[in-house]
Amino acid sequence: MLPHCSLLLLLCVARLLSTTSALPFEQKGFWDFAMDSLDSGGLMTMMRDEEEGSAVEEILPPDISMCPFGCHCRLRVVQCSDLGLTEVPQNIPRDTKFLDLQNNHITELKENDFKGLTNLYGLSLRNNLVSKVHPRTFVPLKHMQKLYFSKNLLTTVPKNLPASLVEIRIHENRIKKVAAGAFAGLGNMNCIEMGANPIHNSGFEPGAFKGLKLNYLRISDAKLTGVPKDLPDSLHELHLDHNQIQAVELEDLSRYKNLFRLGLGYNHIRNIENGSLSFLPRLRELHLDNNRLTHVPKGLPNMKYLHVVYLHSNNIAQVGMDDFCPRGFGMKRTFYNGISLFDNPVNYWEVQPATFRCVSDRLAVQFGNYKK
Question: Which cysteines in this chain are paired by disulphide bridges (predicted)?
């Protein structure tokens, strides 16, 4: 009897050791779980529970993000460009960070088009046919910072833009009016690009930019005849190129003491009133090319940090010895590294060498030939 008991004990110990030395079970998927339950009849129970809905939460994997048909989804970027879409696609993954819908035929943005996309950082709707935007379209986009809406058919700035927005590009639309408070609540806004819209000076209502702390604003290729009033005084860059501005008056620039770069090229400017530039003590670059100036603007020698001046393609016939540089030594903090005077009716050989005494390099001055 004893030998039989010893043999039985050894078999039990061997079975125990073989069980404990096995590798841990690693579930690969749904069918691993199913086959593991097969011996005990658990498979039938599980399938019955699934039909009844009592075990769905336990057996299904976490939600798998779907990608809209025809789009490419990778690393939380959903690219649906160039697909001929006429509306915003459904089933956009909720964790999407950047949504690219450019180069389609979308005509309208509806209330729930972006529902649930609370993580969206950037949205591109460039080059569509959008003319209508529901007032609550952008409400779900609590964290969106960049909105690219150029080359559409907008006639007004969309309403209820997210407070998180930092940059908006709405150039090449049909915007003729910017109402008071159009950008209300957008304290984080840093950059607005709204050129190539058929907007006149009268199209900006008083308070249109109230509350904004912009660094960058471009209203080029519009129908402006003067520098718009009451733009944000925080601006570092202001681009008003390719308009119909006739002159710069004394008060036009009085509130922009933080400007680093001012673009007024390709206008019809004949005169810049004396003292106008004195309000821009931090200006680094001044673009006045392709205008109708007959002389170098007054006040340049007093601009301590100015180092680039574009004056080419004007009607400047004479350059004085003190037009660019101050007389006193050390008054200018930054030497010029770019002065363009080509395509002007000025005889460069008549210009005194001392005229450019505060230029870093003689090659920084460009005269070129004048073609009448």
Answer: 67-73, 71-80, 325-358
C-alpha closest to that of 265 among 249, 283, 248, 277: 248
pLDDT in tens, 239-271: 999 999 999 999 999 999 999 999 999 999 999
Degrees to nearest 5, angle at CA 198 with 285 and 106: 110
Residue pair 276/293 in contact (Cβ under 8 Å)? The answer is no
In the numeric block, the tokens 């530039």 are attached to 277
CA–CA distance, 212 with 110 (Å, rounded to integer):
27
Half-sphere exposure of 63 (CA within 13 A, CB side): 7
Phi and psi angles of residue 216, each rounded to the nearest 5 degrees, phi first: -135, 130
Provide the residue count of the chain: 372
* Alpha-carbon span 228 to 209, nearest angstrom: 11
Give residue for tokens 């490419």.
Answer: 72
Tokens matching residue 364:
């920084």
pLDDT attached to residue 329: 67
DSSP 220-281: -SS--SSPPSS--TT-SEEE--SS---EE-GGGGTT-TT-SEEE--SS---EE-TTGGGG-T
Give the span between the Cα atoms of 143 and 117, in whole angstroms: 9
Whole-angstrom distance, CA of residue 358 vs CA of residue 331: 10
Question: Which runs of consecutive H residues, i.e. helices, occur in the chain?
Answer: 2-20, 30-36, 42-52, 56-59
Write the secondary structure of 156-205 as one string of H (helix), E (strand) and C (coil): CCCCCCCCCCCEEECCCCCCCCECCCCCCCCCCCCEEECCCCCCCHHHEC
The closest alpha carbon to 272, from 297, 244, 303, belongs to 297
pLDDT in tens, 322-331: 999 998 766 7
